[in-house]
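Help: why these numbers?

___
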Amino acid sequence: MGRTILTIIGVILAIWLAFTALGWLFSMLKFFFFIGIIAVVVYLVVTVLAKSRKSV
């Protein structure tokens, strides 16, 4: 009986850990995605400013 209860608790903890790790992974990917978008915007602004300065 005790072994069955411990097995059930172990399975529940493993499922909880898997969902927690997935949450962390998606959070990290979302963070890197937003950092990438900011980097692209900064790159485009710098490129446009550099080309506009060159033409003057």
